[in-house]
Amino acid sequence: MKKEIKGISDTRERILTAAKVEFAEKGFDGARMGSIAKRAEANQALIHYYFESKENLYVEVLHRLLGVNLSQIIHDTVEKLRLGPAEGLYAAIYVIVNSQLETGGRDYHRILSREVAEGGGHLDSILQQYIMPRLNLIEGVIKQGIESGIFECKNPFLAVMGILSLVITYESNRDKFRGTEWDGKLYGGGREMFLDFVLEYTFKGLSKAGRPVEVPKIGSDVIKALEALVEEIKKQHI
């Protein structure tokens, strides 16, 4: 934790970073403001000054972890680059995989797991505001591909859920497999290996019967734009 807050001069940001770790370890119910203050090397009164209550602080952490307007970012990029359905789906998967693996991390998944275990009440508004638009956006890209005769799928929304579930499950189980015989098989190839798998898995599942699997070839200029997008997303996370 000391390394994580080292160099963060802004007290409010130190508190948010400390709170993220506290909530990840103990959940909302078990977290203590005094412990957060100690982690942040800040006076507990400052936490109340900035956030007023533990619940407000927790909601702010959730917003910083989940509240990046990813759907708008992806939409604007696809529009700007004039990508078709296949290239647009590639771009969406590229951004989701890289941003998730770059910014998700252990604390991110532990907080989500604990929140779900505690009833998930704090996630309701965030799901509606940020997560559902992402799902709808990718579903729309797949529907465009179906209409264009590129994809074939009876339930595009389930296809989207499959993509996201695969990415989240992969990253959230990293610690469980560390040091086991499965570690190298799952994580030895790094992010590039996983991205290639998700792309092939997705496009194979959406390919029309009798047609070969075709993951679109993406130009270096598009990849450069997507990498810049991931970097922008990283800056918005604690």
Give me the secondary-structure topology:
Blueprint: H1 2-5, H2 11-30, H3 33-40, H4 44-51, H5 54-66, H6 70-81, H7 85-103, H8 105-117, H9 124-147, H10 156-172, H11 174-177, H12 183-187, H13 190-206, H14 220-235
Helix pairs in contact: 2-3, 2-5, 2-8, 6-9, 6-14, 7-9, 7-10, 7-13, 7-14, 9-10, 10-13
Q: Tell me the number of strands.
A: 0
Please indicate the percent range of residues in DSSP E strands (runs of 2 or more). under 5%
CATH superfamily of the largest domain: Tetracycline Repressor, domain 2
Globular, elongated, flat, extended or rod-shaped: what is the shape? elongated
Helical run tally: 14
Runs with pLDDT <50, length 5+? none
* Strand-pairing-aware structural class: mainly alpha
Rg over CA atoms? 20 Å
What name is given to the CATH topology of the largest domain?
A: Tetracycline Repressor, domain 2
CATH domain class name of the largest domain: Mainly Alpha
Proportion in helices: over 70%
Mean pLDDT: 84
Number of domains: 2
Q: How many angstroms separate the termini? A: 13 Å
- Secondary-structure element string: HHHHHHHHHHHHHH
| CATH architectural designation of the largest domain | Orthogonal Bundle
Q: Summarize the biggest pleated sheet.
A: none
Describe this entry's structure for a reader.
The chain has 238 residues and is mainly alpha-helical. It has two domains: 2-63, Arc Repressor Mutant, subunit A (Orthogonal Bundle); 67-235, Tetracycline Repressor, domain 2. Helices cover 76% and strands 0% of the residues. It contains 14 helices and no strands. The chain has helices at 2-5, 11-30, 33-40, 44-51, 54-66, 70-81, 85-103, 105-117, 124-147, 156-172, 174-177, 183-187, 190-206, 220-235. Helix 10 (156-172) runs antiparallel to helix 13 (190-206). The protein is elongated.
